[in-house]
Specification:
heterodimer, A: 315 residues, mainly alpha, 12 helices, B: 523 residues, alpha+beta, D-Maltodextrin-Binding Protein, domain 2, Dipeptide-binding Protein, domain 1, Dipeptide-binding Protein, domain 3, four-stranded antiparallel beta sheet, 15 helices, 20 strands, 31% helix, 22% strand
């Protein structure tokens, strides 16, 4: 198992190098450059040339890339053109905010999704199943940014019980309770779609397992229905649900972009969108590297957990 | 059984915690005497020489002072850190007497040495503290040398007479930073600013807030507010929600759709102020239908600008009459009336030119600074032009890409393109975008290739004269000619707006679009 994990981690390196070259090329190819973004209306060729000199962008592309890689190997991600601060500081700060948000909603959607799926499967075609399916489908179909705005209107503007945006209170606050208050609306919003997906999959895989011979055997042994469901059926169904949760982790990270914008959550998604539109290439590079690496890691974790649960995969 | 019970208990506990979170703490109103401002974005830097966005100026103008500043409610300059100044006969030497007894927030004295350091740092690329980008350094490209005559006197020598110099000194890049603080923090001065302004920098929590506090020793009188908190809220809908829920006291750039909501609610006050902004279409005067002056005038008649500002922009802009915004009150030609909406006249001119049914390519952007609602405006203009028998096809680009295709010139690509400018001097826009010498291949922004030697001559003279009355006269003549030549389709002047809660007093918007909070108080 350890050898497998090391192998998977090593396989990340070429992926990340390739990715960084592609991102670098795309950023170089799209029209408009950082100098243009910084100067806006005042981007005369003369001014652009001066700002490019100040940014070191007057050098040929391969050289720029090599400089970036050399600095990176020494742990220096460079300085953001637009934010005038080290890229690494910004990326780590933003990424931890995203992790808090995405992590919370991943926990939420796993709990609610699994519960809803099990209940639906056990009471297949009963009224509980119908009700759960109804809400799950609404959850999957509703645009999450729209749901977010609705929640803000109800809880922050109408009832004034939860903050409308941000991660911490602007004045005072700053403790864990404050963070939790700010986390409720965005984490719920982000969890809704993934909850639906997990619920549907859990239901399907539970239904499949419940029809297996060994479940009938367990029942024949005289085990209580609850023991049959949770000890025998659910464990087996979980094996096929876990990788989906791994993929949902990526989805939640990606979906965080909209939610971060709606709730002004200072996460990495919102940062990347801004960095791309301002052609802040070093910030884009740093952000993409961290997100890609974490995406690969999540999938690895999901695979490892799955193989631990499923004896057939252990070999 | 075990599992469900545990899950159930978990759910109940979770719900209880959530309820506790919800009701345990009443929604905090913003504290008295601390003003929370909803900004449209995170600042790029708090070093005034590293920035170019109005969003950043809204903070900087309260932390720093320049040698001169805009007089309240105008775009005319008055003394600030300089008490008075003299200009040599030929307009190339400016000598400033500096204000005595002023200190930077870090305690170091404000003097001639500090001023010299500021300008040398900005314009000399090999200066030891010329690190990062200096986007507005070109505002001072006319400076040849800057020297300290004595401790409290500074002399600027210019390469050539340059009339907008004083106005540029009042702009953000002219704000004076502390030499001691730049030397201490180096590259990190961006986040450790020190000026002489009414508020001292307290804290910058990335993507969350910038806090500045009252400077009790401010030379122009300590401000009433104890502190200002600037919050970046990029999404306009969220900014509105925060304003409605009491999370911020002041909101800038209110979306047109929401202005009436705030106007109808007595707990808010809406402010509007026309600014030095122009929204227009560049017309390709080099080739195609718009090489013909009658066609350029025809489209100026064909577009219903009143309807655009009322229906699309919902009253957040005024109809523009020519190339110079009325906010430059001293240089604005009041005799010019906007081209009236007259589709019949437009059809007539098009018929005379034999251009019925002409095919036009129209570049539209998705957003961008000062572009207001560019897609909706683009489609409304397209509809008006179809009405008079012109077939307009729109091509839409993201803002930076848009600048990348428009700035190099429209030749061979398009007949018209949206554009907007906001400037601090009536000189800037026509000088950079209407002169023959400003064609794209010569490094300017005249992307439609307009050329009129008379206009070139007037602009050159206005730029070098140091007599404001004479300059005003020259600009007014220029406006008449450009109005007649119609190199652009003149559309609108943006009125910046802001909303404050009823607790905020003495709030005012400035034509410079700066947010001056020195006199504001809050209950």
């Amino acid at each position: 198992m350890a050898g497998y994990i090391v192998k998977r981690l090593l396989a990340m390196i070429p992926v990340l190098i390739g990715l960084s070259i592609i991102v670098f090329l795309i950023m170089a190819m799209i029209p408009g450059d950082p100098a243009q973004a910084i100067l806006g209306n005042f981007a005369t060729p003369e001014n652009v040339a001066r700002v490019n000199r100040e940014l070191g962008l007057d050098k040929p592309l391969p050289q720029q890339y090599l400089i970036w890689v050399t600095n990176l190997l020494q742990g220096d991600f460079g300085r953001s053109y637009i934010l005038n601060r080290p890229v690494l500081d910004e990326v780590l700060e933003r990424f931890s905010a995203t992790l808090i948000l995405a992590g919370t909603s991943l926990v939420l959607c796993s709990i609610f999704g699994l519960l809803a799926g099990i209940v639906s499967a056990v009471r297949q075609f009963g009224w509980i199943d119908r009700t759960v399916t109804f809400f799950v489908l609404i959850g999957i179909s509703m645009p999450s940014f729209w749901l977010g705005l609705l929640l803000i209107l109800v809880f922050a503007v109408q009832w004034r019980v939860l903050p409308a945006s941000g991660m911490f209170a602007i004045y005072g606050g700053g403790d864990l309770l404050d963070l939790a208050r700010h986390l409720i609306l965005p984490a719920l919003t982000l969890a809704v779609v993934a909850t639906g997906v997990i619920a549907r999959l859990t239901r399907a895989s539970m239904l499949e397992v419940l029809r297996q011979d060994y479940v009938r055997t367990a029942r024949a042994k005289g085990l209580s229905e609850r023991k049959v469901i949770y000890r025998h059926a659910f464990k087996a169904a979980l094996v096929s649900v876990i990788p989906v949760i791994g993929i949902q982790a990526g989805f939640v990270l990606g979906g965080a972009v909209y939610i971060e914008t709606v709730f002004q959550w200072p996460g990495i998604g919102a940062m990347l969108v801004k960095a791309i539109s301002t052609r802040d290439i070093l910030l884009v590079q740093g952000g993409v590297l961290v997100v890609a690496a974490s995406y690969v890691l999540f999938n690895l974790i999901a695979d490892v957990v799955q193989s631990l649960l499923d004896p057939r995969l252990k070999s | 059984m075990k599992f469900t019970r545990r899950a159930f208990t978990g759910l109940v506990l979770g719900a209880a915690t959530a309820l506790g979170l919800v009701s345990g703490q009443a929604m905090a109103q913003t504290p008295p005497n601390v003003l929370v401002v909803g900004q449209i974005a995170e600042p790029q830097s708090l070093d005034p020489q590293h920035v170019s966005a109005v969003n950043d100026f809204r903070i900087l103008m309260n932390v720093y002072d320049g040698l001169v500043r805009y007089k309240d409610g105008t775009l005319e300059v008055e003394p600030s850190l300089a008490t008075d100044w003299t200009i040599s006969e030929d307009g190339t030497e400016y000598t400033f007497n500096l204000r005595e007894g002023v200190s930077f927030h870090d305690g170091s004295p404000f003097n001639a040495e500090a001023v010299v350091f500021n300008f040398e740092r900005m314009i000399q690329e090999d200066h030891p503290y010329h690190t990062g980008t200096f986007p507005l350094a070109f505002y001072f490209s006319a400076i040849d040398t800057v020297e300290a005559v004595d401790d409290m006197t500074v002399k600027f020598k210019l390469n050539e007479p340059f009339a907008p110099f004083l106005s540029n000194l009042a702009y953000a890049a002219g704000l004076i930073v502390s030499k001691a603080a730049v030397e201490e923090h180096g590259e990190d001065f961006d986040r450790n600013p020190s000026g002489t302004g009414a508020f001292t920098f307290a804290e910058w929590q990335s993507n969350t807030r910038v806090v500045v506090e009252r400077n009790p020793d401010y030379w122009d009188g300590a401000p009433p507010l104890e502190a200002i908190v600037y919050r970046p809220i990029t999404d306009a809908n969220t900014r509105v929600a925060e304003m409605l829920s009491g999370g911020i006291d002041v909101m800038v750039e209110v979306p047109p759709d929401n202005v009436s909501t705030f106007k109808q609610d007595a707990s808010f006050t809406v402010y509007e102020q026309a600014g030095p902004h122009l929204w227009f279409l560049i017309l390709n005067a080099k080739e195609g239908p718009f090489a013909n002056k009658a066609m350029r005038q025809a489209v100026n008649y064909a577009v219903d600008k009143q309807s655009l500002v009322e229906n699309v922009l919902q009253g957040t802009a005024a109809v523009a009459s020519g190339p110079t915004p009325s906010a430059f009150n001293w240089a604005y030609n009041e005799d010019l009336e906007p081209y009236p909406y007259d589709p019949d006249k437009a059809r007539e001119l098009i018929a005379e030119a034999g251009m019925e049914g002409a095919e036009l390519t129209f570049y539209v952007t998705e957003g961008g600074s000062g572009m207001l609602d560019p897609i909706a405006m683009g489609t409304a203009i397209q509809a008006d032009l179809n009405e008079v028998g012109l077939n307009v096809s729109i091509e839409t680009y993201e803002w930076n890409t848009f600048l990348g295709v428009v700035n190099p010139g429209l030749e061979g690509k398009a007949d018209m393109a949206e554009m907007a400018w906001m400037t601090n001097s009536p000189d800037t826009l026509p000088y950079l975008a209407l002169r023959t010498e400003a064609w794209p291949d010569k490094g300017g922004f005249n992307s439609g290739y307009y050329s009129n030697p008379e206009v070139d001559d007037l602009l050159q003279k206005a730029r070098t004269s140091t007599d404001q009355a004479e300059r005003a006269d020259l600009y007014k003549q220029m406006q008449e000619i450009v109005y007649e030549d119609a190199p652009w389709l003149f559309v609108a002047n943006w009125k910046q707006n802001a909303v404050t809660s009823a607790r905020v007093e003495n709030f005012k918007l400035q034509p410079s679009f700066f947010l001056m909070l020195q006199k504001v108080s809050k209950q």
